[in-house]
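Thanks for the sequence, V.! I ran DUF362 domain-containing protein right away. Repeating your input here for the record:
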Amino acid sequence: MSKVFYSKDINKLLEATGLDKIITKDDPVALKIHFGEPGNTAFLKPDEVRPVFEKVKACGGQPFYTDCNTLYKGPRKETITHGAVAQAHGYTDFFIPEEDDCLAQEVNLKHFKKVYLGGAVAKTPVIIALTHFKGHELTGFGGALKNLGMGFGTRRGKLKMHQDCKNCAELKTCKRNQTIDACWIGAPALVQEKIVEYAYGAVKDKKCAYFNYIIRVSPACDCYDYNDLPIVPDIGILFSLDPVAIDQASVALVNKIQGRVKSGNKFRALYPNVDWEVQLKYAELLNLGSRKYELVKI
Ligand code: SF4
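Predicted structure:
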């Protein structure tokens, strides 16, 4: 059973994390984050995550924020404009790899033999996922696993996660238009498993830690240039060394609290065709973590 720590105060939570145990002096430390699409206001703000950055520095590490470019069209599709978005949203100290700065990581799993990850993964022995926990139309919710998996995929990798050519209605006429517009098809279970395989590749041989911010829990992801009202009041921040346990605990906390969506399974109520449990079950099967957890309130 994995421990998941919970607090409304990031500074108190950081005291309980033991981050010093996974950071060796002068380690580059990748803080994996989503800088938010212009127009979206739900993404994590710099002042909310800066205490983690400072804590990493206090542990002797060399932190940097990072994300990879998007497959869909927009300013976050290219490194230079993606960086401009990060800056406009208040971020400094970031690294966004170009498409050819890619690590082809061997995983030898069911869907992929290799996964294509942004070069930041190759440059660091430590990954800390800073995840805005919210709903997602293809995976039910977006948590640590999705932040790692889809988030660390290069554009080529993201395309491979979204494509399901065999079952695609466009197959006969498809000109392999390499965009998400062409390949955004309804295969939530398959996409979830592929995301988990990318997450597996990203954390392979790394020291990792996870923060899930359960605040501004919007129904859809931060890639949209707008966001709807949160489905529940702000809950707080979770920390764990287990990406499966932290996502499982996050869903449970959202389901337990009274909110705008009246259901004990809020993400299923939002997206009836998406079984969000697939990602957790598959990640547990790959030994990425455990769905059993102990919630420790700080
Ligand atoms: S639209 Fe995408 S998923 Fe469908 S056949 Fe073409 S490349 Fe494959």
